[in-house]
Each structure stands twice: as C-alpha cells, then as structure tokens.
Amino acid sequence: MSSTIKDVSRMAEVSTATVSNVITGKKYVTPEVRERVFSCMKKLGYSPNIAARALKANKTYNIGVIVPDITNPFFGEILKSIQAELSRTDYQMIVCDTDQKVEKERRMLTGFLTARQVDAVILIAPRLPVESFPQNINMPIVIVDRPPFMNNSKLSFVYSDNRTSSAMIASYAFNAGYRKFACIAGPENVPNANLRLEGFTDQLSVYGIKKDQIVIKRIEFTFEQGFDAMVQILAERKSDERIAVFVCSDIAAWGALEAIKTGGVRINESIGLIGYDDSFFSRLLELSTYQTPTEQMGSIAGTIILKKLENTSYDEPETKVSGQLKIRKTI
Amino acid sequence: MSSTIKDVSRMAEVSTATVSNVITGKKYVTPEVRERVFSCMKKLGYSPNIAARALKANKTYNIGVIVPDITNPFFGEILKSIQAELSRTDYQMIVCDTDQKVEKERRMLTGFLTARQVDAVILIAPRLPVESFPQNINMPIVIVDRPPFMNNSKLSFVYSDNRTSSAMIASYAFNAGYRKFACIAGPENVPNANLRLEGFTDQLSVYGIKKDQIVIKRIEFTFEQGFDAMVQILAERKSDERIAVFVCSDIAAWGALEAIKTGGVRINESIGLIGYDDSFFSRLLELSTYQTPTEQMGSIAGTIILKKLENTSYDEPETKVSGQLKIRKTI
DNA sequence: ATGAAAGCGCTAACAA
DNA sequence: TTGTTAGCGCTTTCAT
Questions:
Q1: What is the separation, in whole angstroms, between the first and last Cα of chain B?
Q2: Which of B102, B181, B194, B296 is deepest in the core (most CB within 10 A)?
Q3: 3-class SS at A245?
Q4: Mean pLDDT of A120-128
C-alpha cells in the first residue's frame, strides 16, 4: 500500500485539510507550510487516490469510447485525435471494441450509462437503432460519424453528409462514361451505409438509371466480404460489360480490388472502383475514394465532450464536417 | 444524481448491509428479502457506484494499456485480442497512445504506477530505456513485443525472437540470389529494431558480406520515412545494381514500396523488398514479410495480466511466441 | 491561515 | 438471517 494524505499530514505536522489545500491550490497556504507539505509528499512518494477523489467529487475523469473495430485504421485515426484532445486535460479514454456487434454495443453503452465508471461517452459509428437507444441519459454523449437521429440536450452529433458525397460519386462515375453500375453496400443497420446507397442510386436516377438496373450487394464491411461480393459481381457480369462499382467502405473496397486483380480483370477499364472513407492505405492501393475527415471528427468530438463536461449548459447538437473526393487510379 | 444503496435499503426496508449481501451474493439472504431488494433496485434503476467500490476494495478494475500508435493496425490487432481476453471479466482497458514519444510513454507509465487509477499495466512495444525504467513497481505489468530486459516478479514479457527471424530473412534473400543488401532500420531506442538489424547483418556476415558493405538507413517507423529512405537508396544505387532491401517494419515497407513504384524501378527484379510484422495490409500489397503473431501476443498478455491480478504469486516471467516468413511478391 | 469533522457509497467485521 | 457501524482517502464546511 502506498501513502495517503494522512501520512503526509502527519509527517508535515499539519491537518489533512491543509495538505488537500496545498494539492488543489484552492485555498491560500503560507509558503513555508506549502513547501514542507510538498517535500513530505515527495519523500513519501505520495499521489492522490483517484478512486477517493472520484467518490467525493462524483466524477471519474474517464470517458468511455465505443468503437466498432479498433483494427480498422479509419477508427484508429478518430481515436487518436480524440485522445490528442483529451490529453490536454486529466481525462482518459476507456476504449471498448464492439466487434461490429449491436448486442455488444448495447451492453457496453448501458454499462457506461449505469455504472458511473465514466463521466461521458463517445460513440463512434454506432448501430443501435433509434428506437432502442437509451432514453434516460444522465451524462454527455457525443455520437461520431452517424447522422443525427434524436433530440436530447445530452446528445451531440459530429457527422458528415454521406448522402451528398455519395451522389457526387455517382456523378463522377457517370461523367467518366460508365453506364452500368453496382453498389457494394453495408449492413442495413448502419445508417450511413443506407445513406450512401441512397445517395448513389438517387443521383443515378437523375441520369435516367433506375434502381433495379443497379446491381446491389449488401455486406458487412470487411475485406473478405468485399472480396466475395466483387467475385459475384464479376461472375454475373456479361463479358466486356463495363461497370462502375461503388464500394461503400474502403476496407471492403480493398477486398474488391483484390478480387478484380485475382480475376484478371482490368481495373479502371473494365471495372471502375470507388470506395468510401479514405483510410490511409487507400492511398497506397491508389484507390479512388471519398475522404472522410477523421482527424477533424475526432478532435471536434473531443472538444465538444470536454465543453459539455465543464459546462452542462453547453449545447452544440450537430456539427457537420465535409470531406472531398479523391480520384486516384481505380476509376 | 442516481440512487444509492441507501435508497434501495430504505425502499426495501432492510439495512444497507443486506442490500450489499444481495448484490455481492457473498452471504445468504432469504429469498423473499432478496426478491424484494432486487425489485427495488430495478424500480430505482440502481447500479453500484464503481468509485465507492474501488475505494473500499482498493481495486479499480481498470487496466492501463500504453501503445505507440493506435492507428497502426499492427497494434490495433494486439489491442483487440487483449480486449477480447478482458471482456470475459469486469476489467476494462484505459488506452493511451504515446505517439511514439518516449517522454509521453514515461509520463503515462508513471501516471499509471502512481495514481492508482488502474490495477495493472500492459506496455506494448515500449521504448523506455532499461536504466530509466521505474524500479519500485507496485502492480503487475506485462510488456508485449519487446525482449525481456529486467527481472522483477511484477513484470512479465511476451515477445518473439526478432533476431532469429531477421536472420531467416537474410538467408532467404541470399538464397534468392541477391548479393547486395540494404536495411531500413528503426530507431535506436527500439530494442526490436536493433535486434532486427543485427540478426540481418550477422547472418549476412556468415555469407561473407561485411556490415560496411550493407547500406543502412535509420528511420522512425512511418510510411513517409520509409518512402524517403528508399528514395535515397535508389538514388545512391549504381544503375542495374540488384539490391535486397529489408525494411524492419511493414508500415515503412509500404512507403518503400511506394517509392519503388514511383521511381519506376522493377520490384522483385531490380529491388527485392521484405518487411516485418505482416500487418493486415501487407497482404493486399503482396509484400513479403515476417508475420508476427499479434493475436497470440495480445491474448497471452491478457491472460497473464488476469492471472497476475487474481493470484499475486503467479509467475510467468517470459513467454516467447514465434511467427513465420510470408513470401509473397516483393522478393 | 489552519484544523476538526462530516460525509461521498460501499463492504465487512461484529453484534444481535 | 439481518442490522449496526467503522472506515476506505479525499474534499469541504465551519470553527478557531
């Protein structure tokens, strides 16, 4: 066991209150006493017990962060910039990976909301349906990378307009001369995945291309499933048909790209490929994609959560950020 | 403010001790009382205050995890399997990214060791020099992906033999017909980086190739620096010289690969490239590399830390794991 | 300017 | 079987 405030007070021959005042600096203490206390703290290797403080102040200085997949650098980048923001303060992140499972997400969120182990929560790209989102929220929550879906003063959203950007993608592909389209879309329970599909197909309909003419595959956003979906598309394709494929997540687009290479099909001639997110590695693969500003999202999320924490009346329900189309070699 | 054990006890008309016994299940309580207590807990939406428990038990159920770069999927994979292990229990991870800075690492480690905010620490690929590693360690620590460097019953190491595997790489390159070699090595304060360089050059010396004939570049393990180092190697290379380049980290190898492509040099003919780690994306780039078993390391680290936590006499100072050479297209 | 003491919410030793 | 109570380490009010 290490030393307590009592040990310090005894050694410095003052009361624990005085030691506390020295530590917090909230009350004036004569310089000599302060010096004595400091030196005793050092001698004893004293440092305050966080749990005791947390109990007293009803504040843990922990922020729960729930993320779908920590090995995906897209989320890694967001996490990093959140931490960068928090590191200016005493707050730390408790990170939980849901493995892309709604059930785990629900359990973790409920845990955070009830156990008072954290002071606030940041939810990255959550999948919990609106209707089963907790109602009685007792701490600040920031939701990153998902369009606003409910109104609650505790809640803030940091997101980008996935529909508009997906429409841009459709326009680009059409203008590049493609007339046949496919979309490898995400799970139906990921709102952004639906928005991307809708933005894409709606824009194509403007060019007279009906939704039922578009090949649509629903997958989970993984490399393997992206690969498999593309294999199917290739198999169903009439020979020499030129298709623009919008894969709604880079990690799946990498899989699709691999399938194209494996299949010996010429990229950007027979098949045009465009992803979404612009995870770091897309640059290396020269994948055309839409760049979501991860760093910006993360740092805004961090800033908002800190403001909410220090000022309960702070209110910034929605922050929209935007990225840009990155055309490289695949379309 | 949410409800406390006192509220529950009042409502159920029992003492707080009884409520506590119901919760912990450590003492027998008559079924009727127990039911009554449970129903009151539910009615009040009660859940125990973690900070109070932590204070009482002197245990936080938090484990501090310090990682060099959370956006690097190599570390992401380790984190994920640590969390998978912890998720069977009540423990959670407090994740800190050091940004590859020794100073941040030191600060975070010291923080964890003193503030009693965590019950144990997992250090992933730490850079802190042996001599400045904390001496009086008061909680279990597991060090992942760094060779054992000190003896302390609180400390355990999970690592792989970087020297031997790097020697294998040298042998492979030599046997593939290369006679000119380069090594893009890591920072001098990363022990594994040195081991990789040594394993590589020592093995080459067996084939009669002296160290001063080998082109050696020291970099920080990033994409950009890998790129730059390769640009230099290419510039210094005599035309038509065939060189095998060992880049001691995949993330830098990706940069090197990019430089080779950009430079219009033929990979695996003029330049043979081999990385280290086998981060997920290396497969996509068809980079030859050495596969470090991240999942295994993470889950072993998790298991060990849990055992140490529940059984202070548990002692498993070193666990060595091994990976395998993955020869793909770049050498 | 400093100190005494209460109390944050919980658990556990001891009593009844 | 259940209750009373002390105390974990800290902060803060109220005295002095």
A1: 63
A2: B181
A3: strand
A4: 97
CA-CA distance, B128 to B109, in Å (whole number)?
Answer: 10
* Residue B329 near residue B286 (C-beta atoms within 8 A): yes
DSSP A29: -
Distance, in angstroms, between B133 CA and closest chain A CA?
A: 16
* Cβ atoms A159, A322 nearer than 8 A: no
Burial A63-77 (b: 16+ CB within 10 A, else e): bbbbbbbbbbbbbbb
Footprint of strand C on the protein (CB under 7 A): A 13-18, 21, 27-30, 32-33, 52, 55-56, 58; B 1, 4-6, 16-17, 19-20, 23-24, 26, 46, 48-49, 52-53, 55-57
DSSP state of B213: G
Confidence of residue A134 (pLDDT cuts 50, 70, 90): very high
State the best of A59, A114, A281, A299 to mutate against chain B, taking most chain B CBs within 10 Å: A281
Residues A34 and A28: beta-carbon distance below 8 Å: no
Cβ pair A143, A78 in contact under 8 A: no
Bridge partner list, A271: A243, A267
Residue whose tokens read 């922050």? A319
Q: What is the spatial distance between Cα B94 and Cα B173, in angstroms, rounded to a whole number?
A: 42
Q: What pTM value is reported for the model?
A: 0.92
Task: Give CA–CA dist B90/A107, Å, rounded.
Answer: 13
Chain C, protein-covered positions (CB within 7 A): 1-13
Q: Considering only CA atoms, which of A176, A230, A183 is closest in space to residue A202? A: A183
Residue B121 is inside which H or E element, if any?
Answer: strand B120-124
The whole-angstrom separation of Cα A79 and Cα A294 is 9
Alpha carbons B225 and B204: distance in angstroms, whole number? 25
> CA at A56, C1' at C2: how many angstroms apart?
22
- Determine phi and psi for B321, rounding to 5 degrees: -115, 160
Spacing of A58 CA from C4 C1' in Å: 24
Residue A1 has pLDDT above 70, yes or no: no
Split at pLDDT 50, 70, 90, the class of B1 is low
Rg of chain B on CA atoms, in Å: 26
Selection from A311, A268, A313 nearest residue A288 by Cα: A268
pLDDT over 80 at B311, yes or no: no
In whole angstroms, give the CA distance from residue A24 to residue A37: 13
Rg over CA atoms, chain A:
26
Measure the CA–CA gap between A4 and B112, rounded to whole angstroms. 17
Residue-wise pLDDT for B189-237, tens only, equals 999 999 999 999 999 999 999 999 999 999 998 899 999 999 999 999 9
